[in-house]
Each structure stands twice: as structure tokens, then as C-alpha cells.
Write a structure and sequence with these properties.
Length: 233
């Protein structure tokens, strides 16, 4: 009887362990599927924001190894945050690098809305623009705001990513900060301002409204990128 009871107990332990293992495997599998879908949708949106046709964007996704179903018309910032919650640091870094490779593949300056989406991805994944700067050294590209994305009349077709030669105090003032500001204050101020002047907020508005928002977005982004190179960790 005792031996039989012991055998039953051992059997139950084996069954429970197997069930737990299958449950964990199921969660891991679900996370993988969801992560791939999120990543594919983010990259698809990024390519469409750059002017790619949906069929062309899908073909590029296949080339870079994404075969999951995609969802169009997403908010890149929130989807990137969802991706980050179920991805490892290596997976987050790999998605950002894939995005930069895709953006730089054409060899042409990219439109402002695509660069804004890339910034959303970068921040949503938990990185700062330092990560973008390093990747752009490996996969160079410039960004400009084409007419269809509200190009300010003063910008024309010049590249917008360029070190600003103005003094630090002036750059801080653009972000509404004093000279005593630190790196984290700069990051916080930039995120607040870019959320107010993001091109997607005024897409479809009057030409004057789009021009004004795009010009402000360019100004604060250039100031921020220069300051981040000065205020390092």
C-alpha cells in the first residue's frame, strides 16, 4: 500500500511538472508570436511613412525575416513600448538596427514623418538618441521634410541632421531650459516638446499649421541631438 501510494505521488509530481513546463512553453510561444507581430507591424509602418507602397513594404519585411501578419495604421510609440515589455535587450537592439538599416537602404534623405516614427521606435524601446547616432555611423542617412510632409519653406532640401554651432545656453533655451539643466532634464523636455509638435499631430491640417509644426520639430530635434552629444552619461 505504502509503495503504491508512493508510486502515485511520484506520478502526480511528474504530471504536474509536465503541465507546468507545457504552460511555460505556451507562454513563451505566445510571446514570440506577439513579439514578431508587433515588430513586423512597426517596421511596416516605418516603411509606409517613408513612402513605400504596402506591397513593397511587405516584400522588404520578408527579406529581413519578418513573415508575421501585420497591422496597419498603428501608433509606433505605444506598439514599441509593448514590444519592449516582452523582448530581451538584444531583441530590442536588433529591431532598432533593422529599422535603421531599412531607413538607410534607399541612400536618400528620408522624409520627416519617417524620421519621427524612427524616433518614436527608439524611445519606445527604451533607448535615447545616442543609440540612433551610433547606428547612423554604421548605416548613414540624412532626413529632410519633403513637401508632402510639411516642409518648411526655409528648409528647402538641405539635410537636417547637422551639429548646431550655437552655444549651449541657446540650445537649452530652445527646449525651455536653463543653463543648470542636466541630461535627464534635457531628455524630459525634449519628449514633452516633440509630443506637442510631432508631424502626425497636424498631418492633414492646413499648410501653414503643418509648416509651423515641422519647423518647430526640426528646431527642437536638432538642438536635442547636439545637446545629447554634449551631455553624455
Amino acid at each position: 500500500m505504502i509503495a503504491a501510494g508512493g508510486a502515485i505521488a511520484v506520478s502526480l509530481m511528474i504530471v504536474i511538472a509536465a503541465a507546468e513546463k507545457n504552460g511555460q512553453s505556451g507562454v513563451a510561444s505566445s510571446n514570440t508570436v506577439d513579439r514578431d507581430r508587433l515588430g513586423a507591424s512597426i517596421l511596416f509602418h516605418l516603411m509606409v511613412a517613408g513612402g513605400a507602397q504596402p506591397a513593397e513594404a511587405l516584400q522588404m519585411l520578408r527579406k529581413v525575416g519578418y513573415i508575421s501578419p501585420i497591422t496597419g495604421g498603428i501608433d509606433v510609440a505605444s506598439w514599441s513600448e509593448r514590444y519592449a515589455r516582452i523582448a530581451s535587450p538584444e531583441q530590442r537592439a536588433a529591431l532598432l538596427e533593422t529599422a535603421v538599416k531599412i531607413v538607410s537602404a534607399s541612400g536618400r534623405p528620408v522624409p520627416l514623418r519617417q524620421y519621427a516614427a524612427l524616433l518614436d521606435l527608439n524611445f519606445g524601446l527604451g533607448f535615447q538618441t545616442d543609440a540612433l547616432a551610433k547606428l547612423r555611423e554604421q548605416h548613414p542617412f540624412d532626413y529632410i521634410d519633403h513637401a508632402k510632409d510639411a516642409r518648411p519653406r526655409s528648409a528647402e532640401h538641405r539635410a537636417l541632421f547637422a551639429r548646431d554651432n550655437r552655444d549651449t545656453a541657446t540650445l537649452l533655451q530652445i527646449l525651455g531650459l536653463q543653463s543648470s539643466a542636466d541630461r535627464q532634464m534635457i531628455i524630459t523636455a525634449y519628449r514633452r516638446l516633440v509630443s506637442l509638435h510631432h508631424p502626425d499631430r497636424v498631418h492633414g491640417a492646413s499648410e501653414d499649421a503643418q509648416n509651423a509644426a515641422a519647423a518647430k520639430f526640426i528646431e527642437i530635434t536638432r538642438a536635442y541631438e547636439t545637446l545629447m552629444a554634449i551631455y553624455r552619461d
